[in-house]
Amino acid sequence: MSPKPKKDEDGRRFRLDWLGYLGFVGLLGFFWETLRPFRILTLLCLFFLFPYRKNLRFFFQIVCYALGQMVAVCRVRGRLPRPGRYSQKASLTLPFAGFWVVESGGVERKDSHSWNVFNQRYAYDFLVKDEEGKTHRHEGRVLEDYYSFGQAILSPADGLVMQTRDGIRDNPRLGSIDVQARTFQGNFIVIRHAQGEYIYLAHLKEGSLVVKPGDLVKRGQTIGRCGNSGHSTEPHLHFQVQDRGSFNSAIGLPVEFSAFVLQKGGQAHEVTSGYLTKGQVIKNKKT
Q1: Is 35 within a domain?
Q2: In the predicted model, what is the mean pLDDT of residues 193-212?
Q3: What span, in angstroms and rounded, lies between the C-alpha atoms of 114 and 132?
Q4: Does any domain span residue 138?
Q5: Residue 217: how many CA atoms within 13 Å on its side-chain side?
Q6: d(CA 112, CA 118)
Q7: Between 240 and which of 7, 86, 123, 161 could a Cys-Cys bridge form, CB atoms 3.0 to 4.6 Å apart?
């Protein structure tokens, strides 16, 4: 049996993952040279992973991810890209046809997919909803009930496929994540569209990828289909732009999308270029 956790003065159980907050002290060493010795304290952030210790596969993935993100923020010396200040290179269009909803994501903290996760700070989750705001037909008990499931995913610009992953099942347990998945991103595609700009598309449907590393893709080309693989509670597309090909060690980039239609107040408005915001209903101008 494991020893019982200690209790603090208020009678609450002491949790080892709380020690992770001390790791943020170490970040000060990357901003002020006099505090350089404190950098070693960033390793305490690993205590945030303590609750996942019982699932070794998941635990290992999260450890690698946490270490990668520490390396990433140190690489840029804490100077994370900001909207309006980042000079975008590639012109991007939406990676789907028809109207989809920005379920989460934006360039401001209040809308962010994961503000304190540096590669996902400007990430988006996209899915399809009906006029009643539901993401599925019937009871939503099977994957095929979901409007997003199996929808074509398009390349948002011309580019070179750098990495792909397929063969991970679509999580049948809707409403909960598949902690046994070999990668929490599920099936994914990484495309380099410009120097220092990589598109990462995740949770794709098993067996749906039609590209491989080394392939050149064109804007609007179908590259796979929306799925529910990895740590996904229902079918949706996870989309992010990052400065490196590696998911773990990348920094997220705030990008604008070109030529899309925004549905607002029952009206369709054409947008030449702009950032996306949580809750928007959008589609490609040409579809």
Answers
A1: no
A2: 98
A3: 27
A4: yes
A5: 30
A6: 11
A7: 123
Statement: residue 50 has pLDDT above 50: yes
At 67-86, the pLDDT tens digits run 889 889 889 988 999 998 99
Domain that holds residue 123: 100-284
Residue 56 within any structural domain of the chain: no
Summarised one tens digit per residue, pLDDT across range 151-165 is: 999 999 999 999 999
- The pLDDT value recorded for residue 14 is 60
Residue 45 CB coordination number (10 Å): 20
Sign of CA dihedral 11, 15, 16, 18: negative
In the sheet that holds 216-217, the strands lie side by side as 216-217, 159-165, 187-194, 197-204, 237-242, 124-127, 100-104, 281-284, 257-264, 267-274
Other beta carbons within 10 angstroms of residue 133's beta carbon come to 7
Going by DSSP bridges, is the β-strand pair 187-194/197-204 parallel, antiparallel, or unpaired? antiparallel
Helices (H) and strands (E) in the chain, counts: 2, 12
CATH number at residue 227: 2.70.70.10
pTM score above 0.70: yes
> CA 46 to CA 110: how far, in whole Å?
26
Residue 13 belongs to a domain: no
